[in-house]
Design a protein that fits this description.
Elements lengths: L1 E6 L7 H9 L1 H4 L5 E7 L2 H13 L7 E5 L5 H11 L4 E6 L3 E2 L3 H6 L7 E10 L6 H20 L1 E2 L6 E2 L11 E5 L12 H11 L3 E12 L5 H11 L1 H5 L15 H4 L3 H6 L4 H27 L4 H4 L8
Parallel strand pairs: 1-2, 1-4, 2-3, 6-10
Antiparallel strand pairs: 4-9, 5-10, 6-9, 7-8, 8-10
Helix pairs in contact: 1-3, 6-12, 8-12
């Protein structure tokens, strides 16, 4: 059985499409028995999810709602992990949607017994003709570039596999075998925590670039800071959990510096080149803010995990 876990909060306008692109077998490539677990704290999103499940004629065993007590995403994920019955668990968010056959491609790497986690490919759903929209494409494509360079291409297959090196999975679209894992209540990068935990079990991480998930990125500088300080800053926080055993930390200012060449090669015209150049000081300020919040003042989890309105 496959369990699909969708975490969603105040996303009544997007949850139906998220559920539909998974439950429609002809579209998603999903085979065999499955269950969709939707975790939401708000009635509006739960109601829209149930309405779509009824439209798709999903049974009570195929669609399950869990009332999220709104204690943070890690807490919600732990509720889902206790409830899920699947041998493989797929994680995504209620404000994203998968491309055709995404689930089929996401599950392919599990044919290798030592692969315990697989990341799909997040793709920006924004227009590229504005600076913020361009940044969304640049950053999502740089993630694809890094995974495809860090991991090893499996001969004759359309996916990659970690070896000596790896890069953490993306929480927008990832799958894991059902394993005993305890997610800390205050972890900021749950996807990275799970990725490092799998590697510490001496298991491998796969990357399926054909498993595409469309994501809306921040459209304001303020929301950009909020999102990146939380998500990237979570890698700094991971040190306190002692997960850097088999692998070193994979995100830091120094590690990002070599990617300056990718940022400069990515533009297709002069306007985009200027937007690429503008990203450098913004990224530097982001890292300054991250070190301030995580290392200096050690900002509280509840103040760091804030809703990013412009991505909804």
């Amino acid at each position: 059985m496959i369990s699909i876990i969708i975490t969603s909060w105040k996303e009544p306008n997007t949850i139906a499409k998220c559920i539909r692109c998974i439950a429609d077998r002809k579209y998603s490539g999903l085979e065999g028995s499955f269950e969709i677990l939707q975790l939401s704290p708000d009635k509006e999103t739960l109601d829209e999810g149930l309405r779509e499940a009824n439209t798709l004629s999903l049974s009570n065993s195929e669609y399950i709602q869990i009332q999220d007590p709104q204690k943070g995403k890690p807490y919600a994920l732990k509720l889902a992990l206790k409830k899920a019955k699947g041998d493989i668990l797929i994680f995504t968010d209620g404000d994203t949607y998968f491309e055709k056959d995404a689930i089929k491609y996401l599950l392919e790497p599990f044919e290798q017994k030592d692969i315990y986690g697989v990341s799909g490919r997040p793709i920006s759903n924004d227009r590229r003709d504005s600076m913020m929209g361009y940044w969304g494409h640049l950053l999502s494509d740089s993630g694809h570039h890094r995974r495809s360079k860090q991991l090893e291409k499996v001969y004759g297959k359309g996916y990659y596999k970690s070896g000596k090196n790896f890069f953490p999975m993306s929480g927008y679209i990832m799958a894991i075998r059902k394993i005993n894992i305890e997610i800390p209540d205050d972890v900021l990068s749950d996807d990275a925590y799970i990725s490092y935990s799998i590697r510490n079990m001496e298991k491998q991480i796969g990357y399926a670039p054909s498993a595409k998930c469309y994501v809306k990125y921040p459209t304001t500088i303020t929301d950009y800071y909020k999102q990146k300080v939380r998500s990237i800053g979570g890698f700094i926080q991971l040190k306190k959990y002692g997960v850097f055993k088999k692998d070193k930390q994979s995100r830091s200012l120094l590690i990002e510096l070599p990617y300056a060449f990718f940022v400069l090669r990515y533009p297709k015209n002069l306007k985009e080149l200027l937007w690429s150049l503008a990203l450098f000081p913004i990224r530097l300020l982001t890292w300054v803010r991250i070190y301030w919040d995580r290392v200096i003042i050690k900002k509280d989890f509840t103040k760091t995990w804030v809703r990013i309105e412009s991505t909804k």
